[in-house]
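Each field is listed here:
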Amino acid sequence: MTVSLLLAALVLAADPTPEMGPKFANAPSGATRASNQSWWTRFADPELNKLVTRGSGNNFSVLVAQSRIDEADAVVAQQLSPLLPTATWDTSLTTGPLDSLGFQFGGGGVGGGAMGPVDLPNLYWQASSTVNVGLGIDVTGKNILGHRAAKDDRKAAQHDVDAQRQALASQITATYYDLVTARAQLAITADQVETNERLLELTQLKFETGQANAVDVLQQRQQVAASKVQVPRAQQQLRAFEQRMAVLLGETPGQSFDTPSTLPALPARPGVGAPSELLRARPDLRAKTERLEATEKRTKVSKRSFAPDLRLSARGGVQAINVGDWSSQGFWSATATLSVPLSTGGSTYAGMRRAKAQQRTASRDLSQSTLVAVQEVEDALLRETQQAEVLALYKEQHAAAKAAFEESRTRYAEGVAEYLPVLTALASVQRTEFDIVTAHRDLIAARIDLYTALGDR
């Protein structure tokens, strides 16, 4: 499970080798890799930690992946059976007309001869009990390789479980902060409704004293109504995220979740290390590497299928017959069988071609997945950097809009300014409040994507 394994497989398949640089292009120089285990705990939110733990034990996608480990265990046991001796016990009891027994030996029947007639039964009884044992001699080692390939598949299934848990942790964390964002937006909406209603009261008062016109009042009423519309929308979005969270936890939708209404500060950026370290760190790439190793072993098995098979067998037991009285005798035999394949109708050769094709497929799949993994890290690094800049700009814009609103509202209250600048500044303030929350959520999403792209080690 190293870069050399990937490169060796690519050379074997005669494919171009993807080149990976010593560092990520969007990472700072000298960024050594740090442990990425339980990365969600770095947000320092106990409720989030509980939800991830809860989902890891109950989510049905994880449980399905775990059941595939049981399937792989069974295949490992099946692949071991050709290396072990086999044993059967066969017992039989036969009866029939006595005359037919004589016919089997070419006679004219049992019951008469030179001595005269003999008083015999009409039926005969025949019984046997045999123990058969056998052992295939793995001369070429193909059965051992097949067993090892099955064990590689079992390791891949375990890595699939780790990958599913990693993906689930990302989904739960993302949904959790979607819930936090929805509550933050709901709180902002409530504050904006209150602000707009206070300004409506001021405008109404100025209209009654002749300092404002009816249009100003109507515009402010429209502003209040527009802000109130956002309340049910935010509540609907909150409920949708809660239902999604319940499904991720493997539970029935309809419950509520206790989350804060303020997004957290971003934890320190993790060390990303070198692109080549992703092969070890990401569970999906580890699984593909194990499957590549399994296909390499099966290719060798297919080539060794052209060699002869050697099998040792032995049998022993007792057989008895009753024709008026029981008589019995024991027997045994031992056999060594060498089976040389002369012609299989092309199936052995086709099997070898299929195994080689599966090895090339696994090699190319691992190569493509590795490049995609590097791209995902690069994209997450770039998104986080740019989103941090966007958030800073939104905060700067909000500060300027808020200052403009406070000044215009004061001047409007004093009667030295018109209503329109107040309305314009207020709309800018309220828009940037939502922009800041959304940009903050996008920044956290970029960090979640970075943690996911870096793997679980």
